[in-house]
Design goal:
The complex is a heterodimer of chains A (447) and B (177).
Chain A: H1 2-20, H2 23-61, H3 77-87, H4 98-114, H5 134-142, H6 144-155, H7 159-182, H8 184-190, H9 195-205, H10 209-212, H11 214-227, H12 239-242, H13 252-277, H14 286-289, H15 296-322, H16 330-362, E1 371-373, E2 379-380, H17 382-406, H18 415-426, H19 440-445
Helix pairs in contact in A: 2-3, 2-13, 3-13, 4-6, 4-13, 6-7, 7-11, 7-16, 8-16, 11-13, 11-16, 13-15, 16-17
Chain B: H1 11-18, H2 21-39, E1 69-71, H3 87-91, E2 97-108, E3 111-124, H4 133-137, E4 143-145, E5 160-161, H5 163-168
Antiparallel strand pairs in B: 1-4, 2-3, 3-5
The chains are: A mainly alpha (447), B alpha+beta (177).
Chain lengths: 447, 177
């Protein structure tokens, strides 16, 4: 009951607004603005505290403490950092393309924030707008972020920035392909492009698409990490080679806008991954104990918490991978994108299509019943789910086989065969040249 | 080019490589550290936090650590224990100790005698290598190298400690834990 009292203001504000404005204005102008404000504020707060989380988690993984001095457990550190960034000099390099240099950070941050509009944080009022091509909107707008990276690198008039931008454009374009292809399998089961519709499909099916599409999920998450330029795919800003990559020349608040874009893009990718594969805001038993008993707002809030918890888990995965894995070499990065993820996502599409075809063919054959309904997504019966899950996980092994066939002669994969080749080519005949030890030229050769 | 014989991977090894078993092992390690840090388990065993909050939490130095010098005093009379015998200065391989004695008139058994007592004690910590040979040489256990390790000063002159500093110890800022 205490929670209901906490939620009462929503209805109260609604009735208050209706006294001053028409119903259309309230529903389509004022509430969306409130939602947008909430989402932007929460995202900005997340960006600030993501730096804190990142530092803390990295510290814990290395048996350190992380920030401890500003406030209790260093909780005020992001505020101190933010103030520092605000008062820093906004430095523009000589001969920089000034206007492009100015606008690039804004493009980055807008591309990352606009996508939040279609992310279904929860049912009913917890989603800003439900576009019926939501997933296409997400993919299209978030790839504008690449443009910001390229413009920033180009306009900086710096070789590090330019190299970082070149790398990031190649990387993001190649991973965008497998990212776009990996979701198709899930779309076959969802039968819609609306993000809320996907959650609805999983809700009415009472299953996460992760079980139908394990390969799709893995490909989506890997290409998402590469798309966000996060470690181990942080080639565009590889510190040890490129200083800071595309934002080398940026300082102060413009730099922090890039930072903000990176962290909110992480939220977007995890939100889409959650919506597509982890059931979005759907969690078993939530509906039965809240909405079915008439507590509508409680249902929305609990779903919101479920969604944020799932996002949090995936974001932890980001941090976890970053502080565990070393950075890929550039050729390895391209190998993974084009030789592994792209064929795997194509195989996934084919297998998913076969699964859907088999399910439809088996339905009604010899009295078998696999499909419940196709009103909200492809709702399967228990036997249908078993078939889909079997094919989904069997696909892992099929993909393993096909990928090893494709990459049999690629670099870093089949080392034994390649070493034998090296031996045939390189090893000189006869005795190896004897290097005299302790002679003058050996001591000279030492640094 | 020396070549290493690479054994042919078995099917299980190939499968492990495809499903990135080594990667998962690495992830398991970092997760273990993360959970260990949160649950505050033993740091020496490889879990938990190893960092010390230095100015607040002072580290325990080794029992045989030699740090800042000190001239001990008699705990009852608060007179110095130093008899100005100069043995520490002779023992010092770096010649960083100067013992400056003075003569005082004392009456022993009704006769006026002159006694050598300590006037000033100069200890140059910038030249000291903390070998503690002076401590070994001291017959009255007066000169001692303590466990205190905060010897930094703002000037080179600050490294030269006089008798007062050696007896009282230098003032350092103490942070509460």
């Amino acid at each position: 009951m205490a929670i209901l009292a906490f939620l009462a203001p929503i209805n109260f504000i609604d009735s208050l607004l209706l006294k001053f404005f028409s119903e259309q204005t309230v529903n389509y102008v004022i509430w969306p603005f409130i939602q947008i404000g909430a989402v932007v504020t929460i995202t900005a707060g997340w960006v600030a505290y993501a730096t804190y989380l990142e530092r803390k988690i990295s510290a814990f993984m290395q048996a350190r403490l992380g920030p401890m001095r500003v406030g209790p457990w260093g909780l005020l550190q992001p505020i101190a950092d933010g103030l520092k960034l605000l008062v820093k000099e906004d430095f523009i390099p000589e001969n920089a393309d000034r206007w492009i240099f100015f606008t690039a950070p804004y493009i980055a941050v807008v591309a990352a924030f606009v996508v939040m509009a279609v992310v279904p944080f929860g049912p009913d009022w917890a989603v800003i707008t439900d576009v019926n091509i939501g997933i296409l909107f997400v993919l299209a707008v978030s790839s504008v972020g690449v443009l910001a990276t390229i413009l920033a690198g180009w306009s900086s008039n710096s070789k590090y920035a330019l190299l970082g931008a070149l790398r990031s454009s190649a990387q993001m374009v190649s991973y965008e392909v497998s990212m776009g292809l990996s979701i198709i399998g899930a779309l076959m089961f969802a039968r819609t492009l609306s993000l809320s519709g996907m959650v609805g499909a999983q809700q009415s099916d009472a299953i996460w698409f992760l079980f139908y599409q394990p390969i799709g999920f893995v490909i989506f998450v890997i290409s998402g990490i590469a798309e966000n330029n996060r470690a181990p795919f942080d080639l565009p800003e590889a510190e040890s080679e490129l200083v800071a990559g595309f934002h080398t020349e940026y300082s102060g608040f413009r730099w922090s806008l890039f930072f903000m874009a990176e962290y909110s893009a992480m939220v977007v990718v995890t939100a889409v991954a959650t919506t597509l594969y982890l059931g979005g805001w759907y969690f078993p038993f939530v509906f039965r104990f809240t909405e079915a008993r008439g507590f509508h707002n409680l249902y929305v809030v609990v779903s919101l918490i479920v969604f944020l918890a799932k996002i949090g888990l995936l974001l932890y995965l980001y941090f976890w991978l970053r502080w565990t894995l070393p950075r890929f070499r550039y050729d390895q990065l391209m190998d993974i994108g084009w030789k592994w993820l792209l064929p795997a996502s194509l195989i996934n599409i084919v297998v998913s299509a076969i699964v859907v075809f088999v399910l439809q063919a088996l339905d009604g054959w010899h009295g078998m019943h696999t499909i419940d309904s196709i009103a909200r997504g492809l709702n399967l019966t228990a036997s249908g789910k078993a078939i889909a899950i079997f094919f989904g996980f069997g696909n892992l092994f099929l993909t393993a086989g096909i990928l090893s066939l494709i990459n049999w002669r690629s670099r870093d994969f089949n080392l034994k065969k390649q070493r034998r080749k090296i031996r045939l080519v390189d090893l000189p005949k006869g005795r190896p040249a004897v290097v005299p030890t302790g002679s003058a030229d050996v001591s000279e050769a030492r640094p | 080019m020396p070549l290493v014989a690479v054994p042919k991977p078995t099917f299980v090894q190939k499968l492990k490589r495809f499903f990135m078993a080594d990667l998962l092992q690495g992830l398991r390690l970092t997760l273990k550290f993360n959970i260990g840090a949160l649950t505050d388990r033993d740091a020496v065993a490889g879990k938990g936090i190893y960092t010390e909050q230095y100015p607040k939490v002072r580290p325990d130095v080794a029992p045989r650590f030699h740090g800042a010098p000190r001239l001990n005093m008699d705990p009852e009379t608060h007179d110095t224990l130093c008899i100005a015998c100069n043995l520490c200065a002779l023992a010092c391989p770096e010649d960083c100790i100067d013992v400056i004695p003075m003569d005082v008139e004392v009456v022993v058994a009704g006769k006026a005698r002159r006694k050598k007592v300590l006037d000033e004690f100069i200890f140059d910590t910038s030249r000291c290598m903390f070998c503690a040979l002076c401590q070994e040489a001291c017959p009255t256990y007066c000169l001692e190298l303590t466990q205190d390790f905060e010897l930094a000063t703002y000037s080179r002159a600050g490294f030269v400690w006089n008798r007062e500093m050696l007896e009282q110890g230098r003032e350092t800022v103490k942070y509460e834990a």
